[in-house]
Amino acid sequence: MAGVHQPPNAPALVSFPDTDALAHSLAAFILKAQKDSLDKKGRFTIALSGGSLPKMLKGLVDNPSVKWDKWQVFYVDERVVPLDHPDSNHLACTTHLFSKVPIPAENIHPIDPTLLNDLEELSDAYEKDLIREFAQKDAARFPIFDLILLGMGPDGHTASLFPGHELLTEEDRWVAYLDDSPKPPPKRITFTYPVINHALRVVFVAAGKEKVDTLSNILDHPEAGLPAARVKPAHPGQLYWFVDDAAAEKVQYPRTPFKL
């Protein structure tokens, strides 16, 4: 991404004074990624997380530069609940973004709500949805998203990849399930590291003073191996942390100025 420079394979830490500035620059980053992707292949593939991330996408609402008909949207992870359940990542993204923009419904890929009682079948179905979108078009071992947006929990988890969980070592599946999430609800499906790390760009979004210790641990002490610190995209120089100054207060890791 032009204007953001960092050593190969090292994340770029970009800190903003408040969440409004963060959201504005995040939208600009997404639009640049969209343009690059549309220029190259005529479509834009993006995967979203839940949590506080959907609220940070407000800069895309009423933005005439977004080519919604070219987007294909997947979820990095999802809670195994009905699509209208308060815990649903799809509901959060719909509430804060999709209900406010003209994206075609068929361009959004939620989980199949008829398969909630069978975790293996549910995760297999979502993996097949990815295969339909990526396998024939890209001919790669793993899907190559143009952009994946991630959050970070206070325990350092990202997606539904939690500290000490067996899914941290999953190397083959694109989508895996768990029924023992330490954070409720217990049943979830999630992208695995190979999928996340094959993306062309990965952006973590973290804001608020409650993230300050975890963010410092991840960036200043990656050797501790927290799940978020294990995100290492195969494409050098394409890992970013978009944070606010409150979250970055204790971080010693060098900041990178943001320019497009």
TrEMBL record:
EC numbers: 3.1.1.31
A molecular function (GO) term: 6-phosphogluconolactonase activity
Domain Glucosamine/galactosamine-6-phosphate isomerase: 17-241
Classification via CDD domains: 6PGL (cd01400)
UniProt-listed GO biological process terms: carbohydrate metabolic process; pentose-phosphate shunt
Assigned keywords, A-Z: Hydrolase
Enzyme class: hydrolase
Biological or metabolic pathway of the protein: Carbohydrate degradation; pentose phosphate pathway; D-ribulose 5-phosphate from D-glucose 6-phosphate (oxidative stage): step 2/3
Catalytic activity: 6-phospho-D-glucono-1,5-lactone + H2O = 6-phospho-D-gluconate + H(+)
Lineage: superkingdom: Eukaryota
InterPro entries: 6-phosphogluconolactonase_DevB, 6PGL, Glc/Gal-6P_isomerase, NagB/RpiA_transferase-like
Function, in words: Hydrolysis of 6-phosphogluconolactone to 6-phosphogluconate.
Record family assignment: Belongs to the glucosamine/galactosamine-6-phosphate isomerase family. 6-phosphogluconolactonase subfamily.
Protein name: 6-phosphogluconolactonase
Species assigned in the record: Tricholomella constricta
Lineage of the organism: Eukaryota, Fungi, Dikarya, Basidiomycota, Agaricomycotina
